[in-house]
Structures are given as C-alpha cells and as structure tokens.
Amino acid sequence: MPHRLVLGLIVVGGCSFRADYPSGSVTCREGPCPEGLACVDMLCVTPVDAAPDDMDAPDGPPPALTCADPGIIDPLGGSDSGNTMGRMNLVKAMCGGFVNNGLDVVYKMDVPSGTNLTVAISLGTRKAYVLSQCQEFPPQCLGNARAVMGSPIAVTTTTRPSFIVVDDESGSDAGGAYTVNVSLP
User: Fold this and answer.
1) What is the CATH T-level fold of the domain 71-183, as seen in this structure?
2) 5 pLDDT exceeds 80?
3) Is the pLDDT of residue 177 over 60?
4) Per-residue model confidence (pLDDT) at position 39
5) Where does residue 93 rank: exposed (0-12), middle (13-18), buried (19+ CB within 10 A)?
6) Is the dihedral of CA 81, 114, 90, 94 positive or negative?
7) Domain boundaries, the chain
8) Which residues have CB under 8 Å from 81's CB, separation 6+?
9) Which secondary structure element, helix H or strand E, spans residue 120, and what is its range?
C-alpha cells in the first residue's frame, strides 16, 4: 500500500499553506512556497537564478600527475605551477648523461608527431624534459636534453601525444616548487 504523508494545514490571518511530501517534493497548490523556494508547475523548487552553477563545478578530482593520470597542457601551449614535494619518483628518464630519478610530475600534450616545442622552467630548480612514451624506466628524453631555469629546450615530437615531465636527478631530494612553460615556436 503506498504511503502518503501530509503535513497539516496552517492557517494564519486568512492565508493557508499546505505541503504534501509524497515523493520528497513540496507542492504549492494552496499558497506560497517556503522562503527560498519558487512555485514552478505546482511544485516548490529552488529558483533557477539561485541554483548552483554547474559550469563552475569541477569535472572531478585533479589529475594525479603520473603517467597513468597526467595533467593536460593545451595543444597550443601553456604552463602550470606546482610542487614536487610529497610526490613519488616514478619516471627515471635519461637526459644528457643524467638519470632523472627525483620526485616527478607528468603532463600530456596532444600534438601531432613532428611538432616543435619549446619547454622552459621559469620557477624553481626542477628540470623538465619531453618523452615520446610515458613509462617508468628507461625512457630516453627527446633531444637528449632537459630544461633548467634560464635554459629552455627545443624538441620535435615523435609521437602523439607527447609527455612533459618535471623531475630532477637527485633521488633523495625533498622536491620543490616549479613553473613549467610549453610553447610552439
């Protein structure tokens, strides 16, 4: 047998309000809606202009900044800032004679093979390099080079997508702040 809960009838100075809660909704058949609600199709609802804006809501949790869940850099270029403090040492790439086995973060850039990229570090002591495949070990950096603050690198991508890794050669370091910038010349 269906249950229907009816909450009383309130009469104040000749005005009345009746609220039915058959399925968790409030009706406005006989009077105004409670404060903060508006009557639409005989139901008391949150007004559209007071409803939360879904456009401002995040699409989900932020990326983990790993090979499996990289951050995204726009195909037209962009930058991101962060800190490798508390991160894992997952990527151990070889660049210019250095094995980068420090705390790292990974970004993906979906550009066609053959795209020229300039990668720069504009904050911090971290290094940045580009990989054609994101794997833990032993990837080789594109161009066998890594960017350091004040010395950007220019590389040509060999796959789609490419991966930009912020890393360091010191496996025992405590991490640090960085800003990585990627541009198309």
Assistant:
1) Jelly Rolls (2.60.120)
2) no
3) yes
4) 80
5) buried
6) negative
7) 6-54, 71-183
8) 123, 177, 178, 179, 180
9) strand 116-123
